[in-house]
Amino acid sequence: MVAGPCVTLVSPQRVTVVPWWHRQLWDGGRSPGHRSLCDIRVPCPSQRVTVVLWWHRHPQDGVRSLCDSRDSGAVVVQTAPGKVVTHRGGTIILPCRYHYDISAHDPAEIRLKWTKVTEPMTFVDVFVALGKARRAFGPYRGRTALQEDGVGDASLIIRNVTLQDYGRYECEVTNELEDDTGVVKLDLEGVIFPYHPRLGRYTLNFHEAERACREQDGILASHDQLHQAWLEGLDWCNAGWLQDGSVQYPISRPRERCGRKDTPVGVRNYGFRHKESEHYDAFCFTSNLNGKVYFLKTFRKLSYPEAVQACKNNGAAVAKVGQLYAAWKIQLLDRCEAGWLEDGSIRYPIVNPRARCGGREPGVRNLGFPDKKYKLFGVYCFQKAGGGELGVGGGSPKRV
Fold first, then answer.
1. Where is it mostly found (predicted)?
2. Which residue in 120, 259, 287, 369 could disulfide with 198, CB within 3.0 to 4.6 Å?
3. From the DSSP assignment, how many helices (H) and strands (E) are in the chain?
């Protein structure tokens, strides 16, 4: 028998992942009756045991065990696989735990740092902690805190989640000269909507597309969001900017002049385009509403200025395009009457297609941008819940 553990390192192809949240894997935090895997005593080498705990972020390193940190003094970081999902205005926990030899290092020397990956090799500081000192950065101030659920918990709580919080986050733990990093992807429930302004199609450079989405209560969509929308049936013939600066469009029904009839379905990709000089439409993304969109009942049809005043008199504002899409997708708003929106377009949402009501497919119908002064329609208004700011929410953190 040997005094210490005998661990076999295996290649990723042979890995069986043991979830990190099993508390018996953690020294100092395991339940009574559970032994740490680092305490296992096995014969070596004739009866070797393969212990696999997690995927390490460096493929060339293969798979390491928690026992390595006890022997070497290294810090080992684990994050949940896949992604965590919430909605705008919600509260979410980004899970991250770390392991190190507590007898060799003072916990006050451990630095915890969260950053957001905005582009390859580009990072934005979110939150940092060293000992009892805490600091949040930029738009994360007042909305972030460590969960601190026992020894080794570096999980980050984000409250009042915004559209801009979507993306990849890195949890970095540093112990003097040793450090390790894990990645958490934060996803949002919501809806993609294609957009072009009154000027017409293919009139937006990248920065104008960003601004257009923001003005319509959205952000530029990511490739993953567009791909998911395509899986759910989105079919759109006009190419649009995405968050990463690429230009793409989803095709579910290839046809002539629209993805080519003899080609397979999929998301067409023009690649990364020049952000200043090239012009396309935009694919925007929006999420949950802290309020409601409704069709305002009036005695007669309204011009655009009259529609603005009518919503205002009702304690609301003319709805933005993103708000109407969110109401259609999330709140299942279904209305057969066309109405003004904030950008001067005329649209109406259809959840249950029927005769003389928007064709055969559900969606938000767009009748274009008529003359604001002389054309008369109804109006869709948006009223904030309780008079609060859009995107503000709370509640208990959502656990994964």
1. secreted
2. 369
3. 5, 25
291-353+361-387 matches 76-188 in CATH topology? no
The three-class DSSP label of residue 310 is helix
Least confident of 163-167, 206-210, 257-261: 257-261
Nearest to 36 by CA among 101, 81, 96: 101
Neighbours of 119 (CB within 10 A): 10
Amino acid at 340: W
The yes or no reply on domain 76-188 and CATH 2.60.40.10 is yes
The whole-angstrom separation of Cα 36 and Cα 17 is: 17
User: Residue 31 gets which letter from DSSP?
Assistant: P
Distance separating alpha carbons of residues 69 and 3, to the nearest angstrom: 17
State the DSSP H helix or E strand holding residue 71, giving kind and residue range, or none if neither.
helix 67-72
DSSP 153: B
Q: Provide the token pair at 350.
A: 């259809």
With bands split at pLDDT 50, 70 and 90, how would you rate the model's confidence at 103?
Answer: low
Q: What is the pLDDT of residue 397?
A: 53
pLDDT tens digit sequence for 371-394: 999 999 999 999 998 753 333 334
pLDDT reading at 395 higher than 80 = no
pLDDT band at 102 (very low <50, low <70, confident <90, very high): low
31: pLDDT strictly greater than 70: no
- Look up residue 162 and give its amino acid: T
Name the token pair of 104: 């060799």
Tokens of 395: 């509640």
The superfamily in CATH containing domain 191-286 is: Mannose-Binding Protein A, subunit A (3.10.100.10)
